[in-house]
């Protein structure tokens, strides 16, 4: 029996696990797998009818194992991904049955495309990307590794989102062009509801409409 682990049993993990389960059942008419939550700390238990395994228990299992990570923090996500891969455990991508990837897109390993998400055409997406519900990525976008889109992010065409960036709920990234793409820098944070009309420097937080760097008083 195959064992699929969803690392993280918080709110996002509890949303993602049934999406993964539906996807796996649709591709395997006679399911021969178990899908479980995996947590780093705490104790073994059951959540929403699924076992919860400690990370060490999951790593020690003799089953054929696969994993994905439903944790928003990009640094934690990368650390756990590298630990799993170092133990010979393969990542699997999760794509809701009603999500869509239309034409000539390249999506890296370990992606999560939640319900009602859309990737249109000729987009390149890195490893362990999260697209929460109702988010979309338009044509010719380049999305880095360990990037997070919260719900309802609108990423228009010719946008570059570099590694570890976090795009908040309802944010709109203005369309760029082939010659002058809009760039969200490495590790940048775009606040919820922000309308980004200009490129954002690395490790900068922007908020508002139009989005501007957050000033702490």
Automatic annotation (TrEMBL):
The active site is at 139 (proton acceptor). Residues 6-83 form the PglD N-terminal domain. The record marks 140 as: Increases basicity of active site His. CDD domains: LbH_AT_putative (cd03360). Keywords: Transferase. GO terms for molecular function: transferase activity. Pfam families: PglD_N (PF17836). Belongs to the transferase hexapeptide repeat family. This is Acetyltransferase. It comes from Aquirhabdus parva.
């Amino acid at each position: 029996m195959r064992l699929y682990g969803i690392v993280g049993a918080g709110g996002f993990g509890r949303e993602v696990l049934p999406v993964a389960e539906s996807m796996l059942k649709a591709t395997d008419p006679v399911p021969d797998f178990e899908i479980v939550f995996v947590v780093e700390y705490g104790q073994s238990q059951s959540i929403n009818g699924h076992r919860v395994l400690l990370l060490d228990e999951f790593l020690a299992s003799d089953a054929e194992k696969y994993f994905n990570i439903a944790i928003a923090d990009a640094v934690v996500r990368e650390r756990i991904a590298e630990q799993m891969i170092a133990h010979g455990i393969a990542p699997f991508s999760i794509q809701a049955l009603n999500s869509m990837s239309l034409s000539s897109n390249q999506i890296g390993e370990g992606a999560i495309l939640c319900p009602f998400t859309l990737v249109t055409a000729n987009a390149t997406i890195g490893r362990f990307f999260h697209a929460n519900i109702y988010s979309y990525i338009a044509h010719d976008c380049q999305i880095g590794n360990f990037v997070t889109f919260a719900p309802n992010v609108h990423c228009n065409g010719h946008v570059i989102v570099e590694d570890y960036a976090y795009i908040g709920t309802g944010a709109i990234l203005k369309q760029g062009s082939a010659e002058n793409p809009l760039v969200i820098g490495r590790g940048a944070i775009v606040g919820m509801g922000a309308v980004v009309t200009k490129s954002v420097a690395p490790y900068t937080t922007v908020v508002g409409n139009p989005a501007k760097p957050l000033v702490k008083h």
